[in-house]
């Protein structure tokens, strides 16, 4: 185990180094707080012994900068007699323990060994948590495929940092679950998680929702209202379907992210905020950038760490575990005594292509639970569309000799919209998710095609 000693007293550094080296520890030294910060990065110590009073950079300032930079080693502060208040202040800032000067060899080793046991326990807990995340369901997430395990490995690495994350994947693949997992596993877990569907807010209200407003800013602004950035202060802001943001708002969003402060509509002063941005989209943002529909500079700011979630049809090995998990959740919620699913019904679920991904699977299972009359879900409890899905070419036949891509494409689009509305019982929000459209885009197309 490596220990970094930071103290401006060369004699004390030497004597401490001898005590710890004789006890089997690897020891590195730094003569002040600034050199200590450099050594902490280069040497990656497990434990740091740091004096409180030093020139250039004192122990409390060192602790602040070390922790804000992501340093995780246990820090023990050393204080002279009469400086106990500084030791208490250091522990409030994240120090693990303190050593009052002068101290003997036994006292040093006892304190260091206690810290060593704490560090080993922390590492073991971290290792067990990582194994659970990779091999088992974590919260609401089932990760039985190689692709999902890779996604959770990235989540595990990125959660502890503040880097922006962009989660991509088709509707219903679990993008919001991944976003919540990142938040819950981060140091911001006790702060707010604020989700916003960028495609579900009318364009004329987007700016006031994001940035807030002051009383009298416009007609109807009868009171001050904080925006989403202020509401998420100290936590995470989840921008779902970020690809639906109009270009005009993209410009303002980029400026806010660059400056780290927001000004409410009608206000003259700005407010600082501390927010971790997690975005998600079912669209190809790089393609939108090339088409001029999404700002390249905003894309690079949001997609620092990309995580892609494959569609359910590409990870069918997870379906049995997903079915068990979803049945457990909904039988308890609905108060229904169903203890499983018949093999032939499971076989059908494994063969189906799941265009709506996990969200569609959940919908199908909840429907089956409500309709079943036995203690196990049978083939007859599944909807006709799953038991006997139409061939993939359904709706693709060409009328006569008309080979117009525009007209035939519109006919296919109308057919798919009608199919989605039929499958969801007319629920436009669910239909939009199946179609990989925003609710606003679906409403426009329904009106355009005269669909009832």
Set out the fold topology.
Elements: E1 2-6, H1 10-22, E2 26-30, H2 33-43, E3 47-51, H3 59-68, E4 74-79, H4 84-92, E5 97-100, H5 105-135, H6 146-158, E6 165-168, H7 175-184, E7 193-197, H8 203-211, E8 212-213, E9 225-226, H9 228-231, E10 236-240, H10 247-259, E11 261-262, E12 271-272, E13 276-281, H11 285-290, H12 296-302, E14 305-308, H13 319-334, H14 343-351, H15 357-371, H16 384-387, H17 405-423, H18 428-435, H19 439-449
Parallel strand pairs: 1-2, 1-3, 3-4, 4-5, 6-13, 6-14, 7-10, 10-13
Antiparallel strand pairs: 8-9, 11-12
Helix pairs in contact: 2-3, 5-6, 13-15, 17-18, 18-19
Descriptive overview:
The protein has 452 residues and is α/β, with parallel strands linked by helices. The chain has four domains: 126 residues, 3-Layer(aba) Sandwich (Rossmann fold), CATH 3.40.50; 175 residues, P-loop containing nucleotide triphosphate hydrolases (Rossmann fold), CATH 3.40.50; 79 residues, Helicase, Ruva Protein, domain 3, CATH 1.10.8.60; 56 residues, Homeodomain-like (Arc Repressor Mutant, subunit A, Orthogonal Bundle), CATH 1.10.10. The chain has 19 helices and 14 strands. The strands form four sheets. A five-stranded parallel beta sheet has the order 2-1-3-4-5, with helices on both faces. Helix 1 links the parallel strand 1 and strand 2. Helix 13 crosses helix 15. About 2% of the residues have low confidence.
């Amino acid at each position: 185990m490596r220990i970094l000693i930071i103290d401006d007293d060369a004699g004390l550094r030497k004597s401490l180094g001898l005590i710890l080296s004789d006890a089997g520890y690897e020891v590195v030294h730094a003569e002040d707080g600034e050199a200590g910060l450099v050594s902490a990065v280069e040497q990656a110590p497990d434990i740091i012994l740091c004096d409180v009073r030093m020139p250039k950079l004192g122990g409390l300032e060192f602790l602040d900068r070390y922790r804000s930079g992501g340093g995780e080693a246990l820090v023990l502060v050393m204080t002279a007699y009469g400086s106990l208040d500084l030791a208490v202040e250091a522990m409030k800032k994240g120090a693990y323990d303190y050593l009052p000067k002068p101290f003997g060899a036994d006292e040093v080793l006892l304190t260091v060994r206690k810290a060593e046991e704490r560090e080993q326990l922390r590492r073991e807990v971290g290792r067990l948590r990582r194994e659970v995340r990779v091999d088992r369901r974590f919260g609401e997430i089932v990760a039985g495929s190689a692709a999902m395990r890779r996604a959770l490995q990235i989540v595990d690495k990125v959660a502890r940092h503040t880097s922006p994350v962009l989660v991509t994947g088709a509707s219903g693949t679990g993008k919001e679950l991944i976003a919540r997992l990142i938040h819950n596993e981060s140091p911001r877990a006790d702060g707010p998680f604020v989700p916003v569907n960028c495609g579900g807010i009318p364009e004329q209200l987007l700016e006031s929702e994001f940035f807030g407003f002051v009383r009298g800013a416009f007609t109807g602004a009868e009171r001050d209202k904080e925006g989403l950035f202020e509401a998420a202060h100290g936590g995470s802001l989840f921008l779902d379907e970020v690809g639906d943001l109009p270009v005009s708002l993209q410009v303002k969003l980029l400026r806010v992210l660059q400056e780290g402060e927001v000004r409410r509509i009608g206000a003259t002063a700005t407010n600082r905020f501390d927010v971790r941005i997690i975005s998600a989209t079912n669209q190809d943002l790089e393609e939108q950038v090339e088409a001029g529909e999404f700002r390249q500079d905003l894309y690079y700011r949001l997609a620092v760490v990309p995580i892609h979630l494959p569609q359910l049809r590409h990870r069918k090995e997870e379906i049995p575990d997903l079915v068990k998990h979803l049945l457990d959740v909904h039988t308890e919620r609905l108060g229904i005594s169903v203890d499983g699913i018949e093999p032939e019904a499971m076989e059908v679920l494994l063969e189906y292509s799941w265009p709506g991904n996990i969200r569609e699977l959940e919908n199908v299972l909840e429907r089956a639970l409500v309709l079943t009359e036995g203690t196990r879900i049978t083939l007859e409890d599944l909807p006709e569309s799953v038991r006997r899905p139409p061939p993939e070419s359904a709706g693709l036949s060409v009328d006569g000799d008309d080979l117009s891509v525009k007209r035939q494409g519109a006919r296919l689009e109308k057919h798919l919209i009608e199919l989605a509305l039929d499958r969801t019982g007319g629920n436009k929000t669910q239909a939009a998710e199946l179609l990989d459209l925003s609710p606003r885009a679906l409403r426009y197309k329904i009106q355009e095609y005269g669909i009832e």
